[in-house]
Amino acid sequence: xxxxxxxxxxxxxxxxxxxxxxxxxxxxxxxxxxxxxxxxxxxxxxxxxxxxxxxxxxxxxxxxxxxxxxxxxxxxxxxxxxxxxxxxxxxxxxxxxxxxxxxxxxxxxxxxxxxxxxxxxxxxxxxxxxxxxxxxxxxxxxxxxxxxxxxxxxxxxxxxxxxxxxxxxxxxxxxxxxxxxxxxxxxxxxxxxxxxxxxxxxxxxxxxxxxxxxxxxxxxxxxxxxxxxxxxxxxxxxxxxxxxxxxxxxxxxxxxxxxxxxxxxxxxxxxxxxxxxxxxxxxxxxxxxxxxxxxxxxxxxxxxxxxxxxxxxxxxxxxxxxxxxxxxxxxxxxxxxxxxxxxxxxxxxxxxxxxxxxxxxxxxxxxxxxxxxxxxxxxxxxxxxxxxxxxxxxxxxxxxxxxxxxxxxxxxxxxxxxxxxxxxxxxxxxxxxxxxxxxxxxxxxxxxxxxxxxxxxxxxxxxxxxxxxxxxxxxxxxxxxxxxxxxxxxxxxxxxxxx
Length: 499
Fold this sequence. Notes:
Layout lengths: L2 E3 L2 E8 L2 E7 L28 H5 L2 H13 L14 E4 L4 H11 L3 H4 L2 E7 L5 H18 L2 E6 L2 H7 L11 H20 L3 E3 L4 H14 L3 H4 L5 E8 L19 E8 L1 H4 L4 H11 L15 H16 L3 H28 L2 E5 L2 E7 H5 L3 H14 L27 H9 L2 H12 L6 E5 L2 E5 L3 E7 L38
Helix pairs in contact: 2-3, 3-11, 6-7, 8-12, 8-13, 13-15, 15-16, 15-17
């Protein structure tokens, strides 16, 4: 039920564990501007003058951002970009997300009807600071005539209550907050029927991520940094409405799969942090500053404040170069995953109870590259003896399966893949490729690998089977729950014995 609140309409709605309030700036024609009641603002909310999209319209960055958004929301095989599709904008009130919204609103007025700004309020910062950022983001949407939605999540409650599925207990509050934020954005996208979620990651964030992964010794996927767009598959519970629950119990659960797309128009447009500040200043908007960004005890903040300025001084085009290099690395990663998928499909798979064993002749794996062997083991850990989506189709660790809400398909499997890093897999790969004939065993997160003279066996735990449901299926439609494959007897002399 809509409740008139002065010069805007407030429509409260509660969905799952998050609370939602929708604000539509609907003016009453019978009221003059002078007679409209003013809203009380919280102290320190930072009243900003009404944003001026006309000042942003003159900037070339705005045109590039609009073109990138239209390109990312157009069909993949379309020759020309479309007018843009309904998009959920993650709006924090900072310079980057505010610049994204300001640049899109600098285009034709019809674009604003395709935008829904969502602000996620969490409990990692003092309440007054969080509410001040919320008020600033809402004021920006009011000035631009864009629909504003507020959602609230509890990071501390999620950690205490174990609401994060598929993940071991963690005290990484920022990582949990990021997963809850993605879940809230995906929930709103499902409710509104939007297929795209836009975040304000830009070229500086991409280079920071690449440097962090380089210091950690990441592989191709990590060195590729942040992708301009990626698929975000979610699983809906068909027995409930789209607003209530979205099951995410992992690959074995049942439900309707809906594929969303996570897009980054600023990154696709080659926009950096300095461009975001320029857009906000051109609009006369005073953005919010997150104090944690200046905490140089955190690796990302230290790279942002100390390393990137020096790199830009030495190589002014370092941002554009890192984006070009990332495209090549993503292509190489796709080729590696494709080759590893063929190796997994040729494995002798034997499912016995709660275990699934993948067996290969050691000679077949030994002649493969280090990248392909490592990816083969990761895919086996993710497959777990089931008919699961391949890692090339799965979402990355930024959006994982979470309880009671939108969840990424294969959340538990994706978690197992994330823990099988290059540092963990390198000793196993070295044992497969060396000339030793002694049997060796490696206990990895979610995977038990045994290497003998003639065979490599990777054993992983199978997910709990979903309760059977009677369903009619078309002859051309494959079942979503694959029966355990019949055991194929391994060749003689290649059975793993002992440890």
